[in-house]
Specification:
two-stranded antiparallel ribbon; 255 residues; 7 helices; 26% strand
């Protein structure tokens, strides 16, 4: 079996409730969304070549042409001492555009003792059903139409909430599920209220991570502290586990 990959490297988790934990990142190529604040737009299209870190923390990489045989990936994971990591993060791009490869990678690397962390845009419900048995933690981004659109521009962002709700119901089959939303100055109260209402209808116990946008070329500013704190207080009226956590990896230069 083969997969289109962007890279594999050893680092620590840079966002969400497990920030700072040792993580082996497996980044898949291609995504069917376009987020204005995306910090890895080079993953939007299938990659021509994939890079693999040669040893843990070295920052030295070797390249392979895509698609990459999964045996090559597994050998690279062993060189990076996969078993010493608390998590293996399957990220992208959007990994669930390649569900067969995700299932195979998750099963193989999970057997080495690390928990499998699936980082996903939370829309590919049928693909999730095919891999959920191999996933320990589903971290789904809840997309807001104020900053996100489909790549093919044939579907409206108005369907995000319905698709996310369907996805979340399947994701709850995993041992752990987290919902994350990137908040920008364009994020509206109506969008965030709709998110909270749908999450609470499934379970008010599901953790919701508010992630202030990391400034980019297209979104140059974060929301104000007052705005973020007010959102946190507002959402806590409906959900029992709301956390305000910015990205940390830009601080120390990791991807």
């Amino acid at each position: 079996m083969e997969a289109n990959l962007v890279e594999m490297f050893s680092s620590v988790q840079g966002e969400g409730p497990y920030v700072g934990t040792s993580t082996l990142f497996v980044r898949f190529g291609a995504c069917d969304l376009r987020c204005r604040w995306c910090d890895s737009p080079h993953t939007w299209r299938p990659a021509r070549r994939a890079r693999f870190e040669t040893s843990r923390g070295s920052g030295i990489f070797v390249e392979h042409a895509n698609p990459v045989a999964l045996e090559t990936l597994f050998e690279a994971a062993e060189r990076l001492d996969v078993a010493a990591h608390r998590f293996v993060s399957l990220t992208g791009g959007e990994p669930l555009l390649q569900p067969e490869a995700v299932a195979s990678v998750a099963k193989q690397l999970r057997s080495r003792g690390s928990r499998i962390h699936l980082e996903t845009h939370g829309l590919a419900t049928e693909a999730l059903e095919r891999v959920i048995d191999q996933i320990d933690l589903v971290c789904m981004d809840w997309k807001l139409a104020s900053d996100v659109c489909f790549a093919d521009e044939t579907r409206s962002g108005e369907v995000f909430d319905t698709l996310h709700e369907d996805f979340l119901r399947i994701a709850r089959q995993a041992p752990e599920v987290i919902v994350k939303v990137v908040v920008t100055p364009a994020s509206t109260d109506a969008e965030i209220d709709a998110l909270a209402q749908r999450v609470a209808a499934i379970s008010p116990e599901i953790p919701l991570i508010l992630q202030p946008v990391t400034p980019t070329k297209h979104v140059p500013e974060r929301p104000s502290a007052e705005r973020l704190l007010a959102l946190t207080t507002h959402l806590e009226r409906r959900l029992r586990d709301v956390r305000l956590i910015p990205q940390t990896h830009p601080i120390y230069g990791a991807l």
